[in-house]
Amino acid sequence: MCTRVIAALAVFLFLGWSTNALVAAPLGTAFTYQGQLRDGGLPAGGTYKLEFKLYDALTVGSQVGSTLTLNGVVVTNGLFAVQLDFGAQFAGSARWLEIVVNGTPLSPRQELKPVPNSVYASTAAMASAAAGNSITSSMLASDAASLNKVTAGLMNVSANNVGIGTGTPTQRH
Question: pTM value?
Answer without folding.
Answer: 0.57
